[in-house]
Design brief:
CATH topology of the largest domain: Rossmann fold
Helix content: 40-55%
Radius of gyration: 20 Å
Strand content: 15-25%
Distance between the termini: 58 Å
Largest sheet: 5 strands, parallel
Low-confidence stretches: none
Number of strands: 9
Mean pLDDT: 93
CATH architecture of the largest domain: 3-Layer(aba) Sandwich
Number of helices: 9
């Protein structure tokens, strides 16, 4: 007798809920880690954080998972796909190196520049104070301020003028959610 495929969807957002919904409609036996209230209606939620690669690998073995689909950026950047693939688990998602395109705005810009791929003109800074000084020394022009790292989709500020750009730098400095993401900052021309 042929059994349904066991699929583990890693994450707890709307994207993961949509994946769970579709996979169950296609006949898969789906698990979600950690999942959410919506995935609980369609699949078996596992109380494992998306960044706990050891516990996820244990769950893959315990539940005889045939395929893992990784949604959130943090486990991708942290190398979850690499770890699972090295363990022989069929996994859908980019490697840690490929995920750096999303995980580091500076890495992405340097890759674009090195390969002569057109991109907005930019400056990178390793401190918020240097970024602030740069903004204060230039003409009052529209810019985009970007925290380098992952910031849950909140680290990009499209600014119409210097005041808005300085406000963005201040927000990056005072808001705890940006502490790690703002260890590097990009300021680029607004297209």
């Amino acid at each position: 007798m042929h059994r349904s495929k066991n699929v583990l969807v890693v994450g707890n957002g709307g994207r993961e809920h949509a994946l769970v919904w579709k996979l169950t409609r296609d006949g898969a036996n789906v698990f979600a880690a950690p999942g959410n209230a919506g995935t609980a209606e369609e699949a078996t939620n596992l109380p494992i954080q998306a960044t706990d690669s050891d516990a996820l690998l244990d769950a893959v073995k315990q539940h005889e998972i045939d395929l893992v689909v990784v949604g959130p950026e943090a486990p991708l950047v942290n190398g979850l796909v690499d770890k699972l693939t090295e363990a022989g688990v069929r996994t859908f998602g980019p490697s840690a190196l490929a995920a750096q395109l999303e995980g580091s705005k500076i890495f992405c810009k340097e890759l674009l520049h090195t390969n002569d791929i057109p991109t907005a003109t930019y400056r990178q800074f390793n401190s918020l104070d240097k970024a602030r000084s740069f903004l204060e020394s230039r003409e009052d022009e529209p810019v985009v301020v970007k925290a380098d790292g992952l910031a849950a989709g909140k680290g990009v500020f499209v600014c119409s003028n210097r005041e808005e750009a300085l406000d963005a730098i201040n927000q990056l400095q005072r808001d705890p959610q940006f502490r790690t993401a703002a260890s590097g900052v990009l300021i680029e021309e607004r297209l």
